[in-house]
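Open question from group meeting: does this chain pack into something compact, or does most of it stay loose? Before anyone orders reagents, we agreed to write out a predicted structure and look at it together. Recording both the input and the output here so the notebook holds the full record.
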Amino acid sequence: MMIQSRVSTLAGILAVASLAGSSPTSAQREIQPTNNLPNPYQSIEGWAKMPEGRAWGSTSAVDVDRDGTSIWVAERCGANSCVANAATGEMSALEPILHFDASGNLIKSFGAGMIASPHGIAVDRDGNIWVTDYSDNAPRAARGSGRGAAGASTQSGTAGGTRGTAPAAEAAAGQQAGGATAPTGPPPGATKGHQIFKFSPDGRLLMTLGSPGGAVDPGYFYQPNDVLIAPNGDIFVSQGHGQGKSEVLKFSKDGKLIKRWGQTGAGIGEFDQPHALAMDSAGRLFVADRSNNRIQVLDQDGTYVTDWKQFSRPSGLYIDSADTLYVADSESESVSRNHDGWKRGIRIGSARDGVVKYFIPDPTERATNTSAAEGVAADAQGIIYGAEVGPKRLMKYLKR
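Structure tokens returned:
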């Protein structure tokens, strides 16, 4: 208990100092891993019932319906992509967007043939469902084939599960900071991917942002990770999953681009895989700056407020109505030995002062790839849901 108290106190001191305007590169660097915190949660696996004959695929997208109890999730069609045939780009006939009641019964599903690889999901105040597609269906050569054609993948996808989204033919199109390929047009043969979709609760398509196939261009997205809808209807999108430009884009409620900011890097206002978004009751924008092992807190115009490292390497973010902050870490000590000393799992704390209170550890201590929750959400009763890419499941966590 003494160790836990010291860690929590240190996290709080650093957070308050940062909010007060101290340098994010001084005391923040000295923070120790927040691993030894209480875990008052019971894990429940297999609670969500898939249709007979259908298995779970990878998922990083989970959110709570406006009813406060039912759950929306987007999973990757029983695999790690909804592209059924990588060589041809043929799409799966399975419906990736799923709605479960609190008991795990499937209420509705839709979206077949539309989304190459769902990554982020958000439910707005009107109950509409927003989904990001961070890959595409451009034909790819099979691994090990030796083919260097336009379909060759340049990214293995171990960090988050992309099937490879930048063909070799595009490598000369340009480089962003950090050496990430920034294609200027859609990959050859791509007819799906790199878009944001808005659906009604019954599955009707209401809006599409971006053009199919994607590119780093004002009219496109490339590897959009997450989407967030502000109370006034403004739309925020984070993009850049290892290739392309890492940035945040802001749109009006009718889909008009207002501004975009950020680039790939580790400085203030720069990002490296801005993997998830959340907003607190004060309207501050939280960005899971995953490959920089930090959360950046910004205002809604992109002005830097602070950054927090005590929540570890963030893959998923969720902030509830009481400003409880839930942060999923699915990669520490497993993907390229990144962030050694920090354990994977879900950390729960305060979005107001940055104090970490609880930690649900990943039971798979020896994982060598993404493990535990990548996406996270919590319902009105404080029940936590973790969407997992590697284990391919949707976990539930009940407080004991």
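Observations to bring back to the group:
The chain has one helix and 26 strands.
The longest helix spans residues 2-19.
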